[in-house]
Design a protein that fits this description.
The protein is of the alpha/beta class and 299 residues long. The chain folds into 2 domains: 161 residues, Rossmann fold; 120 residues, N-(1-d-carboxylethyl)-l-norvaline Dehydrogenase, domain 2. It is built from 14 helices and 9 strands. The strands form 2 sheets. It has a 6-stranded parallel beta sheet. Strand 1, helix 1 and strand 2 form a beta-alpha-beta unit. Helix 9 crosses helix 13 and helix 12 packs antiparallel against helix 13.
């Protein structure tokens, strides 16, 4: 529908994976017209139960709205969508706002925002925390960096997607806090895996270990998510895909090294998650790092 008139309740969406599709569905339910473009037609075909308005091109998507959302895998994906020939930067209407839910390199965000601002387009980096479950429940934590006036315009839309929504500073600030989020989560996860393996090595029953850890000061949301997977031997459905955490933690570790920072817990966590992804099945829960830690216990 190339002729769709831009309105405050029309949004273009690119990136309709597990999280993006859930977010787009919430917006449809909230009364938004959601224009969608995907590289593969099969993506939209698989989402036939969501009333998305399929667009034949990025140009058509941009013609239909001045509010665009991205939720893709990495920095290169975002840069390609924005700046390739026929990309969003070429076709976005003046005055457009792009909200990017992707987790990407904080160092790249300032350049992205500057290039888009020269075209009278605002870019809000707004990574999210909560995983696919949080996206489905509309309880995501959202950390937004960029122009405050632009953020204020999109905040009502964000409230349909998340529970804790904050403007945290200039361009890149959202990604910096998401990096800290992933560091705290994954470093804690490796600590839990090591503690559980140590207790198991001493002959303890993992279910009892988990119960007592959850009742004491080590209690945490990470323990509540990962502990049951470790106890049950990873037979439950995947909660959070390991390759996504591994990608984020490796990105932060590499950025920290470029800055000359020495963060040994981060660097070791990145190594363990890289090993998990390299040697495990394509779809696996990040808590399965428990098995990688166990393999190295007597190394």
């Amino acid at each position: 529908m190339n002729s769709t008139s831009p309105t405050p309740k029309t949004i273009g969406f690119i990136g309709l994976g597990n999280m993006g599709s859930a977010m787009a569905g919430h917006l449809c339910n909230a009364g938004y017209t959601v224009l969608a473009w995907a590289r593969n037609a099969s993506t939209l075909e698989a989402l036939a139960d969501i009333p998305l308005v399929a667009q034949p091109s990025i140009a058509a998507l941009c013609a239909g709205t001045r509010l665009l959302a991205l939720n893709v895998t990495n920095t290169a994906d975002v840069q390609s969508l924005l700046f390739r020939d026929g990309g969003i930067a070429q076709h976005a209407q003046p005055g457009s706002i792009i909200v990017d839910f992707s987790t990407i390199d904080a160092a790249a965000v300032a350049d992205i925002a500057r290039h888009l601002k020269s075209r009278n387009v605002d870019y809000i980096d707004c990574p999210v925390s909560g995983g696919a479950a949080g996206a489905r429940a509309a309880t995501l934590s959202m950390m937004a960096g960029g122009d405050l006036a632009a953020f204020n315009q999109i905040e009502p839309m964000l409230k349909h997607l998340g529970k804790t929504i904050r403007h945290v500073g200039p361009s890149g600030a959202g990604q910096a806090i998401k990096a800290a989020n992933q560091m705290a989560l994954c470093i804690q996860l490796v600590g839990i895996a090591e503690a559980m393996n140590y207790a198991l090595e001493q002959g303890a029953e993992l279910s009892v270990v988990l119960e007592l850890l959850q009742a004491g000061l080590p209690a945490s949301r990470v323990l509540d998510w990962a502990g049951p997977h470790m106890v049950k031997g990873f037979t439950d459905p995947v909660s959070i895909e390991a390759h996504l955490h591994a990608k984020d933690v490796r990105m932060v570790a590499d950025a920290a090294k470029k800055q000359g920072l020495h963060l040994p817990l981060l660097f070791k966590t990145a190594e363990l998650l890289d090993e998990l992804v390299a040697n495990g099945p394509k779809s696996q829960d990040t808590s399965r790092v428990f098995e990688v830690v166990r393999k190295h216990m007597r190394a």
